[in-house]
Amino acid sequence: MHALGSIYTSAMTMGSIRNAWLAGAMLLGACGGAPPPPDQTAAATIVIAPAPVTSEVVAMGAPEPAPRRDGMVRVEGGILHMGSDDGDFDERPVHDVAIEPFDIDATEVTMRAYDACVRAAHCTAASQEVWWPGMSDSDHETGSRNCNQGRQARSDHPVNCVDWEQARAYCQFAGKRLPTEPEWERAARGTDSRTYPWGNAPPSRSLLNGCGLECVEMFRDWGFTVKATYEGRDSWEGTSPVGLFKQGASPYGALDMAGNVWEWTASEYCQYPHTSCERGKIALRGGGWLNHEGASGVRAANRDSVWATMKGSALGFRCARSIG
Ligand SMILES: [Ca+2]
Ligand SMILES: [Ca+2]
């Protein structure tokens, strides 16, 4: 994890350890040069509406749709009750967003898939090192230990340590695009405003690759204290192969929408209801193998943001595609 050290300290001074490494990176990023602004690809119609009632939502146990042969799942359109009144300040107010049906990758993009784009000379290679503006030497050293580039045994793991432009280039290569933030939330939460992709049951090591005891101990060895996502130990100190946690599927069959790697979206980071935006900052979703904030960090409405130029070892992406 990139952060730790100075980043962790920075986040703590904000009065919260929310998304500490990412928030810290954002703070540090503000000291560096601003990256190119993102284009505005979100095609959502925004309508303010009262918060939906979510208390009746229960954990889902029904079989989830299987990915198609092209590795994507279909996500229904309609009104998304975006955000959460139970989450962080940037998840409020809950507001309605109209979205069109679309397809989204069932899994995060793997190293193997990304390398095919590199071999085709459409993508630049993923980095073996983390980077963000103002990064410290210790951030660089600890964060780079979990970049997957150049590790043969991780070809089925998500590509990480790629910036936003690299993610966009890959999706273009695949005939796709990054999902907008509303689309990502729809794909993770379905139509019932559930807390997590699988329902409302708390995270566990059978549902996602989060920060279990293996992660807590790793950071303890590095001199840092992090809060576990769940009790017990999972098998993955860093990323895991994509699509491993079938029980954690979203209502549409999308996997790892919670945990493994945070995911780039197409959207600039804006306060709801999309009135005030931070130019050059991109909205991230899903939480990752590293979360300082425990279970809350992998909620489907949780958000974070970083400079578009960041390359993080707990940050990857998946692609989406419009229908028709
Ligand atoms: Ca783990
Ligand atoms: Ca993920």
Task: Give structural notes.
This protein is an alpha+beta fold. The protein has a single domain, classed as paralog of FGE (formylglycine-generating enzyme) (Alpha-Beta Complex), CATH 3.90.1580.10. Helix content is 19%, strand content 16%. The chain contains 7 helices and 10 strands. The strands form 3 sheets. It has a 4-stranded mixed sheet. A 3-stranded antiparallel sheet has the order 1-4-3, covered by helices on one side. A 3-stranded antiparallel sheet has the order 2-5-10, covered by helices on one side. Helix 1 crosses helix 2. The radius of gyration is 18 Å and the shape is globular. The N terminus is likely disordered. Bound molecules: calcium ion (2 copies). The site of one calcium ion (CA) has 8 residues, from loops.
Q: What is the topological layout?
A:
Blueprint: H1 6-13, H2 20-29, E1 45-47, E2 72-75, E3 78-82, E4 95-99, E5 102-105, H3 111-119, H4 137-144, H5 164-173, H6 181-189, H7 213-221, E6 262-271, E7 276-285, E8 303-307, E9 315-316, E10 320-322
Parallel strand pairs: 6-9
Antiparallel strand pairs: 1-4, 2-5, 3-4, 5-10, 6-7, 7-8
Helix pairs in contact: 1-2
The structure holds calcium ion (CA) (2 copies).
Assigned CATH superfamily: paralog of FGE (formylglycine-generating enzyme)
Per the principal axes of the C-alpha atoms, what is the gross shape?
globular
What is the radius of gyration? 18 Å
Listed once per kind, the bound small molecules are: calcium ion
Total number of distinct structural domains:
1
Query: What name does CATH use for the topology?
Result: paralog of FGE (formylglycine-generating enzyme)
Mean pLDDT: 84
Note the quaternary state here: single chain
What distance separates the N and C termini?
Answer: 40 Å
**How many strands, what sense, and barrel or not for the largest sheet?**
4 strands, mixed
- Classify the secondary structure makeup into a structural class: alpha+beta
Uncertain regions spanning at least 5 consecutive residues: 1-60
What's the total helix number?
A: 7
- Share in β-strands: 15-25%
Topology as H/E string?
HHEEEEEHHHHHEEEEE
Helix content: 10-25%
Strand order in the largest sheet: 8-7-6-9
CATH class: Alpha Beta
Using the 3D structure, state the CATH architecture.
Alpha-Beta Complex
